[in-house]
Each structure stands twice: as C-alpha cells, then as structure tokens.
Write a structure and sequence with these properties.
Helix content of chain A: 10-25%
Oligomer: heterodimer
Helix content of chain B: over 70%
Number of strands of chain B: 2
Distance between the termini of chain A: 32 Å
CATH architecture of the largest domain in chain B: Orthogonal Bundle
Largest interface: A-B, 42 and 23 residues
Strand order of the largest sheet of chain A: 6-7-8-3-9-10
Number of domains of chain B: 2
Structural class of chain B: mainly alpha
CATH class of the largest domain in chain B: Mainly Alpha
Number of helices of chain A: 8
Distance between the termini of chain B: 53 Å
Order of helices and strands of chain A: EEEHEEEHHHEHEHEEHHEEEEEEEEEE
CATH class of the largest domain in chain A: Alpha Beta
CATH architecture of the largest domain in chain A: 3-Layer(aba) Sandwich
Number of helices of chain B: 24
Strand order of the largest sheet of chain B: 1-2
C-alpha cells in the first residue's frame, strides 16, 4: 500500500521567479517526514508539487517506482490534509469521510464498513450526521484526517494541519497524528513552520530555506549538530557570538572577544587552521559558576518552575542578532535550584559546555564540529 | 544558474481542458455582441448622414446645438443631485436602523428592498398620477387648503423620484457595511471621548466610505442612464437618454448617426465617472470583518422619536407611489381607460389581461431565458476568473464588466445599428426575442458575475483540491463540490437579476417589435396613450411579480437580505 517518495532535481518557477532551484530528497516507506522552514521557504510549494496542485518545472517525482510528474492529481492516490481542513461544508461528517470512496468501484457495504472504521479510529462516529459548521476545529481536523486516510492512500500529505488550532489542541492533535500515522503505517510528508511541532512528530526533518534544503536528519541530529548557522538559529533558541579559532601545536583553541579561551577536540581536520568563527551556544549549554568562563553580569531572570532563565550582559562576547533575537543579552537556562535566584546585577562567569557547542565558519555556511549528519548529500543536492 | 534555467525550459505537458473551449465561446460571444456593436456605433458616429463618408459632422452638430448640450448638462445635474440626495437620505436611514433600536425595522427593511426592486419609471408614473397636474394630492391640496402645489414635472420631479428610488440602494449597501464594523471600534471611540454625531462623522463615515463611494457610483450610473423616469415626469426637461431615443426614433427627423455620436459621448462621460470613483476608492482600501457586529442601542426618548419619524417618513415616501398605483389599478375607468370614474372595479385588470396577455407571456419567456443564461454565464465566468487566472480569462472579466459603464440606451442603439442587417451571412438578428435576450444577458451579467465571483472567492480552493486528491475529476469536483457551495449565493443573485430583467426598459425600448412587447413597454405605451388606469393595472402586476421574487429571495437568504444588488 504505502510507498516511498523520491524527488530528483525538482525545479519550481513562476515565470522567471525561481522558487525551488534544484531539490532532491527521499522519503522512506512508512516514514514520518517533515518539511520545516520559515514562511516562503518553498515547503508548501514542494508539498503541492507532490500532490499535483502545482506544476513541476523540472525534475522527477516518484512514488515507489512510479513516476508521477504527469499523473493527474485525482489519480495519484494521495491523502491530503489542509491547513484550513477543507471540509465540504455542504456534506455531513459521514458524507465527508465517504466522499473519496465514492470515486472507487466498491460495494455499498464495503464503503460503509470502511467509513465506519475510520470514523471510529478518529473518534468522530458520534458526530457522523452533523454538518461541519457545528464541529470544533479539532473535530474538523479529525474529519479531515479520517477522510484522507479512508481511501488507503499511498502517501499522506499534511499542510500545516495544526496551525489553525489553539495551543492546547495543537499538542493534543500532534499526538493523535503521530499515533494514527504509526498505526496505519503510512508514508507521511508533513509541512510546518513550528520547529517544536516538527521535532515532536517526525522521524526525519528537512529544514528548508529559500527553496533549498539545508539539513535533512533526525530531530536529535538537527538540534545538536545543525549543518549550518541557519539551521542552528531556526531550530530551538541559540546565542550567537563571534570567536577565533587558532591552532597551536595541533590543539584547537577557541578564543572569545574578552580573551577567554578554551580548547576543542572535535573540530573537523580539514578546518583545523586559524580562522574567524561563529559560536552557536544554546541556553542550556552555558553553566553559571564563579571560577572560570566569560565574564558577565545578570541583567534579568525569569523563573519558570522547572527551569530558570537568566539574561546576562557581557562585554566579552559580541552577540550576533538574528530575526528572533535582537538584543545584546545572552540567554541561558539553569535547572531551578532551591537556593535564591541570582539577583540582577550580580557578576558571574559562564562556562561553555564545549562538547555540545557548535562552531561555524565565519560565513555561517558550515558547521566545523565533527558529528554532523546531513542526509541531504545522499540524494544528490550540492 | 544557467543550467537551472535550462531545467525550467523542460516544459510540462500543456493540459488542454474543456474550460479553454468555454473561454473561447464566451470571448466570441462578447466580441460579436458587444465589441462589434460598439465599434459599429463609434464608426457610425463618425459618418456623415448624407454622404456616408467619415466626418466629425455629428460631433460638431452636437457642440453647436445648444439644446443638446443643455440636455447633457441636465443629465449631469440630475445625476449629481440624485446621488447627493440618495446618500443624504439613505445613509442616516441605514445608520439608524442598524445602530439603534427602531421598532418594526424588519418591516421597514422589506419595504425598502421592495422599493429598490421596483423600476424607477413605475415610481415616476405613480408620482404623476399622485401629484401631477390632475393628481389626487394636487387636487386635495388645492380643494381643501387652496394651495397650489409646485409642479411635479421637470427637474424637481426627476430628482425626487430617482432619489426616493435609489436611496434604497444606498441603504442596502451601507447597511451591509455597517454590519461589518466591529462593535469594539465604536466602543473604543466612545472610550476616547468621541460620541454621538461626532462619532458618526469621525469614525463611522470614514469606515463606510468605500461602500458609500461604490453606492454613489451605482446611483450616478443608474440616474444617468435612466430612461423611464425623465420620459414620464421630465416633460420639457430634456435629458440625454431621452434625447438619444428621440434622435433615434424621432418621427420628424430620424438620425441614427447622430444618436450614435450622442451614445459615444455618454459612454465617455460614464467612463470618466467610473475611473474617478475607482481613483477615489483606492484612497480608502481596508478590509473589515466584524467579530461582534454593532449592538443596537436604545436612543434617548426624543432622539428615538425623531429617528422613528425619519425612518418611517422616508420609507413611506419611497413606497407611497407603489401603494397608490395599486390603488389606482382598482379604480373604475371609462371604456377607453382614459378617465377615472367613481368606485372600484377590476375592469383595468380585465382589459390588461385580455389585450396585453401576450406581453405578460413575452416578459416571462424572455426573462426566464435570459435569467437562465445569465446565471449560467455568471457561474462559469466566476469560475474562470477566480480559479483559472490567465490573460484570456482576465480579458473576459473586463469584457463582462464593460456594460456596467455603458448606459442601457447605448447598448440598445448599438445592437440595433449593428444587427438590423445581415452580419457575416447570418440572418437579421433584430426584430425577435433573440436580440432582446442578448441585450439582457449583456446588461445584467455584470452584477450577477460580481456576486458569483465574490462567493467563489470565499470558498477556499483547498476544498476543491481536497476533492481532487480524493479521486474526483475536475468536472465532478465542480458539480459535486463547487457548485453546491455557490448555489445559495447564486440563487439569491439570480432572483435580484430576475427582478431587474423583468423591469428593464431602456434597452428594450429600442429592440422591441409589436410581437415582442414586454410588460414594461406596455406600461410605457399605456401611459403615453393616457390610459393611466390600465397602466396602473399592468404596473401592479409587475409589482406583484417583484414582490413574489422578493419573498423568494428572503427565503433563500433566510431573511438576511444581502447588501449587494
């Protein structure tokens, strides 16, 4: 039933405006694969190319061994779930779920049995005679999912299916989607701009920006060893600081602006030469202590129960501003202690967890720490 | 980058679907029945009547003819004042009934919609019967109070009748806009110390400005293009539409080339007005969507009294003529129908149903055919314009909207000058119901297409994609998903078109023959003959038709009554 998806050198352009220049990837059979990126990065465009709603200007798309470029969207046998659910407002829940089955040669009994089965699976059988306008957003999304799955599609495509739901429902439906996908065992391509959502549901994630794949990998790999600066700052929160890499006697020393130095033993061999670098330090990769590390002063703190967030100022580091971080403060997270919260204005030292920190070339295009796993290169992207 | 560019050139297979053929057919229709006649019209306007060679003689004649220039000025003056009065009367009416508790506002609404659906010439005719030289009101004032009422004829009468008729349009549009204002905006402005009239002027008016401009344009166009009102009540006050008709059909001096030149001038004026309005509208673009519509407040007693008085007075004034026409239709008349006698009878109806039964059937036949085609055209055009954007369909969109700025009389003249002879080997197309149906389709489609486009734009495309991804073909998706979702809106639009189709006069007057007279034309004929009783009966039947249509409309839209006509 379910098949893998293979995309070779896909091109999407509107007139002269090239949205996706050259993109290749593979989704394994039964895999939960997520396209993640900021709005306008081409993720939805790519999904709609797979679905057949966008024309394909170049490259080959395969479902299993079958090239689908010229197959009518109605005949691709896909299940699709849309951001706005796209429930037929003039049909009852049951008729909505049944809609796709009516396009197949199937006995009435079989059709009813299948409809019943999937309404039960999505826990919507009690609303089967209701009109969609009398359903909540979460319920509508369940109908949409049942409708997409009941036709036993080869692949399931989901376009930001949770972004219209409120925060609590979003988390709940996330679990539902993941669970159903496993149960049915279907290949799923999922589009979202919410990195937390992506990490919580995906087997693998492709991070996209400006029509190009930046990084394909497991959520853990992408978070801990992002392929480049874009991925590092897009996934999770990151403090960025300028630094210098110097190689002395075969040892790689990183020095910060204030002269604080530490040695790193996991720099890629080919990058072991003197160069300017950018450090991406996640809030949990800094340890407050009073002995060693960069000099800093606590500016503010937020107590969130499990953790306490500190915002510190330091002349020692030169902060690089990103889209969602535009102040000169470093953010760091400590597990809340039973002791007092460190008062504002206190001088502290920050030690960097050097086994976790990521170091990028000055242009941000490459992570020079060992251990980056990027499947992107397996599929012929450059 | 170069190699990538090459990749793009690797073109996907062009998918020719049946919609392309539909586009071609529609384009051909508009080219043949609208563009070609317009070109003929322009050509004719540059033709010397005697010699048939190209010349500016018609335009020169226009400029040198004081009375004709005056007619143009009259039309302009009338349209401006009608627009002003319709706004002044209609906006407060909409504001009071939407924002304050007015008792019986539902009934007021029904009456206003009903008066918006009645053709202005029925209003004109009834004002003549009511307050003309020999009208009941005039006589009453003279006999009882010995007051000589100012004449209802001429400029005053035209403006009065049209303003009372078109204020209902303003009311409908503005009510729709007011319902889109979120209550929080009103609350915020009170919170900031702006209330009462100041709030109305500073907050409400700017928010409904786009709607006011749109309705002002509509009123202006209709007033400028109206033929029935000035013909019935204008007497010596010559306006443009009547002038064109006189030039075209004049018994003494028929001059089609000159009528064509006048038509071209009319189009230029309406086009300029249209562009001006578009420009003005571009200064006020914002979208509103009310989560919580304005709550109706109870006004203070005195204010409330004044508002009630205003609303009822205006509505009654707008509706009074219709009631009076119905009243007149039951009055006993002399055998010839020219003189009213004491007492009531059904003799007017008896006469009309006997002598003019063919016009009723004509009206129904022509109108039903036109309506079905208009609806079909509207649905198909909306689909092409919204879902299949390409150059050809955008052209089609512009073509279908063009009649919006072309006065009905001009379309009438253009069709008759183009098709009263054989074109491209086809038989002569004028003289039968066919050309009248074509005229109605061209004239009435813009409104129905606009409302269908609006509905379709509200239907997310993903719903259609969902259907396709579930294995339905495009055609099946259109009929099973898109059409059912559009249907309610399309039907309500169709009912409004139906009303405007059966009450249409200004184009039909050029195209009818004895065999294809419609009800509006027979009212016109009867009034010209002076048979007011018979004319009233016919007008009353027409009112009955529109009332039934309105009830249907209210049922379809569940009493909402949309803001667009």
């Amino acid at each position: 039933m379910s098949v893998g998806i293979k995309i070779n050198h896909a091109v999407k352009a509107y007139g002269d405006n090239v949205v996706i220049p050259d993109l290749s990837l593979e989704v394994k059979d039964g895999e939960f694969f997520t396209l993640l990126g900021p709005s306008g990065c081409g993720k939805t465009t790519l999904l709609r190319m797979i679905a057949g709603f966008n024309s394909i200007e170049g490259g080959d798309f395969y479902f299993g061994d079958k090239r689908i470029n010229n197959i009518d969207p109605a005949k691709r046998n896909i299940g699709m779930v849309f951001q706005n659910y796209a429930i037929f407002p003039h049909l009852t829940v049951e008729k909505n779920v049944q809609f796709g089955l009516k396009n197949r040669k199937m006995s009435k009994e079989e059709m009813n049995a299948l409809t019943e089965e999937f309404m039960k699976l999505m826990h919507i059988e009690e609303y089967k005679d209701r009109m969609p306008e009398r359903l909540s957003g979460g319920q509508q999304q369940r109908v949409a999912l049942a409708r997409a799955l009941v036709i036993k599609p080869d692949v399931l495509l989901m376009d930001e299916p949770l972004s219209n739901l409120d925060a609590k429902l979003r988390v709940e439906m996330r679990t539902v989607i993941k669970q159903i996908q496993r149960e049915v065992g279907i290949t799923n391509v999922y589009v979202t701009h919410d990195q937390e959502e992506a990490m919580s549901v995906s087997d693998r994630i492709a991070v996209m920006n400006e029509g190009e794949i930046q990084h394909i990998g497991k959520p853990k790999d992408i978070y801990q060893r992002p392929a480049n600066l874009f991925v590092a700052s897009f996934i999770g929160r990151t403090n960025l600081a300028n630094g210098k890499l110097t190689v002395k006697n075969g040892k790689c020393i990183i020095s910060m602006a204030d002269g604080y130095e530490f040695e790193m033993d996991n720099i890629l061999e080919e990058e072991q030469h003197d160069q300017d670098v950018i450090l991406a330090i996640r809030p949990e990769e800094l340890v407050i202590n009073d002995k060693e590390g960069i000099h800093a002063k606590v500016d503010d703190s937020v107590f969130l129960g499990l953790n306490t967030h500190y915002y510190v100022l330091s002349d020692a580091v030169h902060c690089i501003h990103t889209e969602d971080k535009d102040d000169d403060r470093f953010e760091l997270i400590q597990e809340s202690l039973i002791d007092e919260i460190i008062p504002n204005g206190t001088d502290v030292r920050l030690k960097i967890k050097k086994e976790k920190v990521n170091v990028f070339t000055a242009d941000g295009s490459k992570n020079i720490v060992k251990g980056v796993k990027n499947d992107k290169y397996l599929y012929g992207n450059d | 980058m170069n190699t990538k560019k090459k990749n793009i050139v690797q073109k996907q297979k062009k998918n020719y679907d049946s919609w392309v053929i539909v586009t071609f057919v529609l384009l051909a229709f508009y080219l043949f029945f609208m563009i070609y006649p317009m070109i003929s019209l322009v050509k004719q306007s540059f033709m010397d009547k005697e010699t048939g060679v190209f010349s500016m003689v018609n335009y020169l004649e226009f400029i040198n003819n004081k009375s004709n220039v005056l007619a143009l000025q009259h039309s302009f003056k009338v349209s401006v004042w009608v627009t002003v009065f319709s706004l002044i009367l209609g906006v407060p009416l909409a504001y009071f009934t939407t924002c304050y508790k007015i008792k019986g506002s539902m009934i007021l609404r029904v009456l206003i919609i009903l008066s918006s659906m009645s053709p202005p010439f029925v209003g004109a005719f009834s004002w003549v019967v009511f307050a003309g030289n020999n009208g009941i009101f005039t006589r009453f004032m003279k006999n009882v109070f010995n007051i000589k009422m100012p004449s209802i004829y001429g400029f005053n009468g035209i403006v009065l009748v049209m303003s009372l008729s078109f204020l209902s349009l303003v009311y409908l549009y503005v009510t729709g806009a007011l319902k889109n204002i979120d209550n929080s905006l009103v609350e915020a402005s009170s919170n900031l110390g702006t209330t009462g009239i100041k709030r109305f002027m500073k907050v409400i008016i700017p928010l409904i400005m786009p709607t006011m401009l749109a309705s002002a344009l509509m009123v202006f166009m209709r007033a400028f293009a109206d033929f029935g009102t000035p013909v019935f009540i204008g007497k010596g006050y010559q306006v443009f539409t009547v002038l064109i008709y006189d030039q075209y059909s004049g018994e003494m001096s028929q001059n089609k080339a000159y009528a064509a030149a006048l038509s071209v001038i009319a189009i230029i004026i309406t086009t300029v007005i249209f562009l001006l309005q578009k420009w003005a509208n571009s200064k006020f673009t914002f979208t509103m969507n009310a989560l919580h519509p304005i709550e109706q407040k109870k006004a203070k007693p005195l204010q409330s009294f004044l508002m009630h008085f205003y609303c009822y007075f205006i509505t009654l004034l707008a509706f009074l003529p219709q009631i009076y026409v119905i009243f007149t239709s039951f009055q006993r008349t002399s055998e010839s129908g020219l003189i009213f006698k004491k007492g009531f009878s059904l003799n007017s109806y008896r006469y009309v149903l006997e002598a003019y039964s063919d016009t009723i059937w004509n009206t129904i036949k022509i109108a039903v055919t036109a309506l079905l085609l208009v609806v079909l055209l509207a649905v198909v055009c909306a689909y092409l314009v919204v879902r299949r954007k390409n150059i050809m369909n955008q052209t089609l969109d512009i073509l279908t909207m063009m009649p919006y700025i072309i006065p009905g009389s001009v379309i009438g003249v253009a069709l008759i000058v183009s098709f009263n002879r054989s074109v491209m080997g086809l038989p002569v197309l004028t003289g039968g119901p066919f050309i009248m149906i074509v005229a109605l389709i061209i004239r009435r489609s813009p409104y129905t297409i606009r409302s269908s486009v609006a509905i379709l734009q509200q239907i997310p495309q993903t719903i259609e994609e969902a259907s396709i991804s579930l294995g339905s073909s495009k055609a099946k998706t259109f009929f099973k998903v898109t059409l059912p979702m559009m249907l309610n809106g399309v039907i309500s639009g169709a009912i409004l078109s139906w009303v405007s189709i059966i009450t249409e006069l200004s184009t039909a007057i050029y195209l009818f023959t004895y065999r294809t007279r419609t009800m509006t034309i027979s009212v016109y004929e009867l009034v010209t003959k002076g048979s007011y009783g018979y004319a009233s009966a016919m007008a009353a039947i027409l009112t009955l038709f529109t009332t039934i249509s309105l009830i249907l409309y209210m049922v379809v839209t569940k009493g909402e009554g949309s803001g667009t006509a």
